[in-house]
């Protein structure tokens, strides 16, 4: 198959690597990709958010399938345009992508579908927001309504900080004040062709910047998969995913289909498992958010465990035939990924600094690197950034790369991941040291 992958992050690198690993052998391109992806497949310099540019390229190249990585092209209508031109595309149209792009829309769909989620109040003014903040009490949860690149959510014990966060995001639109949900978080990816829903294996993401969940929220600093502790509550991973499919995913997919906005692509359910305390009314699985695309960095740990072809799954979803392909299979392997971020991430990351040790790190057994924000140094860079060989890599954004390691146990995978990270140099680079520690004993 000729497969065009849109995006330029570690998630897209993970998708490319998974497709490349298939026996069938595919012709793959990424647009715009990054310096790491370019080491594996040809990259095309086009604006992934431009529906016409993407569609023209897909037609000219003869793409059999387009896989949309990030949310921005979805919200920009790239999938709609491709579908209009008859090109199979994995990714929802603009209207269904509002499940991620608008938290108000997501709440309405969840309510209509009877899906369990936290109570929320939408506020358009600071007075409304403050009243809701005081009604719910601490810990406070305040969210920007629209896309905010992972920066729109504040969870804090500090009332003044909650009000300040609301005041900031009210300049850009409305905000949601939400009930605080206490419990373990799970990211579950569900593939849909608009009607049928197929779950992948769950992962856990580390959203906060620092060890022990200290510091601000980020796009995600690490992840692991599978989640052995799910067995304690649900008996098995299958029992858990079945419950999510039945009580959350299927009703949401059916609701969107009934509103003539079918969801074709990856429904990412961000869940909190509130404690199943005896007598408590608020226990069980709750949705914190939906995304309309694969998660980053969870994809980096879920796809390496996928033991059946990714392309078959995505193509079946794109062509409305998901019910006819075998359910995805996963290996028992423990997968861990740790994100290396630039100094000052997530505020104003310092970029343009050279990366070292990548070849050595990625040559370690059962370790690979998914690049996120890397580029090759050129003549315009400081001479100390380029060694003249033309292949010096520079960090070009906040989350720079994901080190991915596999093992027969989490302890083994963790050791490998941190061994690899120890060989990578980036001035001011930061990473968490506790990724998957809780499952490694
Ligand atoms: P979101 O961008 O909506 O996924 O939120 C980012 C993070 O904030 C989540 O991964 C949770 O850790 C936390 N969070 C969001 N909503 C809630 C909530 N209602 N209760 C507790 N934590 C939350
Ligand atoms: N890891 C969180 C996200 O992809 O939104």
Describe it.
About 30% of the residues lie in helices and about 25% in strands. The protein has about 450 residues and is α+β, with helices and mostly antiparallel strands. It has four domains: about 1-95, Rossmann fold (3-Layer(aba) Sandwich); about 120-180, Dna Ligase, domain 1 (2-Layer Sandwich); about 180-325, 2-Layer Sandwich (D-amino Acid Aminotransferase, Chain A, domain 1), CATH 3.30.470; about 335-440, Phosphoribosylglycinamide synthetase, C-terminal domain (Glycinamide Ribonucleotide Synthetase, Chain A, domain 4, Alpha-Beta Complex), CATH 3.90.600.10. The protein has a five-stranded antiparallel beta sheet. Helix 2 (about 50-60) crosses helix 4 and helix 7 (about 125-135) packs antiparallel against helix 8 (about 160-170). The radius of gyration is 21 Å and the shape is globular. The mean pLDDT is about 95. The structure holds adenosine monophosphate and glycine. Glycine binds near residues 205, 220, 291, 295 and 298.
Residue-averaged pLDDT: 93
Give the helix tally.
14
| Unreliable residue stretches | none
Distance between the termini: 42 Å
For CATH, the homologous superfamily of the largest domain is named as ATP-grasp fold, B domain
The counted number of beta strands is: 22
Task: Identify the overall geometry.
Answer: globular
Query: What number of structural domains do the residues give?
Result: 4
Unique ligands:
adenosine monophosphate, glycine
Compute the CA-based radius of gyration: 21 Å
Please name the CATH architecture of the largest domain.
2-Layer Sandwich
Largest sheet: 5 strands, antiparallel
Q: Kindly report the CATH topology of the largest domain.
A: D-amino Acid Aminotransferase, Chain A, domain 1
Strand order of the largest sheet: 11-14-17-22-19
Main CATH class of the largest domain: Alpha Beta
Strand content: 25-35%
The helix-and-strand class reads: alpha+beta
Residue share in helix: 25-40%
């Amino acid at each position: 198959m000729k497969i065009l992958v849109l995006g330029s992050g570690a998630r897209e690198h993970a998708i490319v690597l998974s497709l490349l690993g298939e026996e069938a052998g595919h012709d793959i391109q990424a647009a715009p990709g990054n310096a790491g992806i370019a080491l594996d497949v040809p990259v095309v310099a086009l604006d992934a958010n431009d529906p016409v540019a993407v569609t023209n390229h897909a037609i000219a190249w003869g793409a059999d399938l387009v896989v949309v990585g990030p949310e921005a092209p979805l919200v920009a209508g790239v999938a709609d345009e491709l579908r209009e031109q008859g090109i199979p595309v994995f990714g929802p149209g603009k209207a269904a992508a509002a499940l991620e792009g608008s938290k108000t829309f997501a709440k309405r769909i969840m309510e209509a579908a009877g899906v369990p989620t936290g109570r929320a109040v939408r506020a358009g003014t600071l007075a409304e927001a403050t009243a809701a903040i005081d009604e719910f009490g601490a810990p406070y949860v305040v969210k920007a309504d629209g896309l905010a690149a992972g920066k729109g959510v504040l969870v804090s014990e500090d009332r003044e900080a909650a009000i300040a966060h609301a005041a900031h995001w009210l300049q850009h639109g409305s905000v949601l004040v939400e009930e605080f949900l206490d419990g373990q978080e799970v990211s579950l990816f569900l593939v849909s062709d608009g009607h049928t829903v197929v779950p992948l294996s769950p992962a856990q993401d580390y959203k906060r910047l620092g060890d022990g969940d200290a510091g601000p929220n980020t796009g995600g600093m690490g992840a692991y998969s599978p989640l052995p502790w799910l067995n304690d509550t649900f008996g098995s991973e299958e029992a858990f995913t079945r419950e999510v499919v039945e009580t959350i995913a299927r009703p949401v997919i059916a609701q969107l289909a009934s509103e003539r906005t079918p969801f074709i692509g990856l429904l990412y359910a961000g869940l909190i498992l509130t404690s199943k305390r005896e007598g408590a009314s608020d226990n069980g699985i709750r949705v914190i958010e939906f995304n309309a695309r694969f998660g980053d960095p969870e994809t980096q740990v879920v796809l390496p465990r996928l033991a059946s072809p990714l392309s078959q799954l995505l193509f079946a979803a794109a062509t409305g035939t998901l019910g006819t392909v075998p359910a995805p299979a996963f290996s028992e392997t423990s997968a861990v990924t740790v994100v290396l971020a630039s100094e000052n991430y997530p505020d104003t990351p310092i970029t343009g600094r050279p990366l070292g040790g990548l070849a050595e790190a990625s040559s370690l057994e059962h370790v690979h690197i998914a690049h996120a924000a890397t580029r090759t140094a050129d003549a315009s860079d400081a001479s100390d950034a380029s060694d003249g060989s033309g292949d010096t890599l520079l960090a070009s954004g906040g989350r720079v790369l994901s080190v991915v390691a596999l093992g027969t146990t989490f302890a083994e995978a963790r050791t490998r991941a941190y061994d690899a990270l120890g060989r990578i140099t980036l001035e001011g680079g930061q990473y968490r040291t506790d990724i998957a520690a809780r499952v490694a004993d």
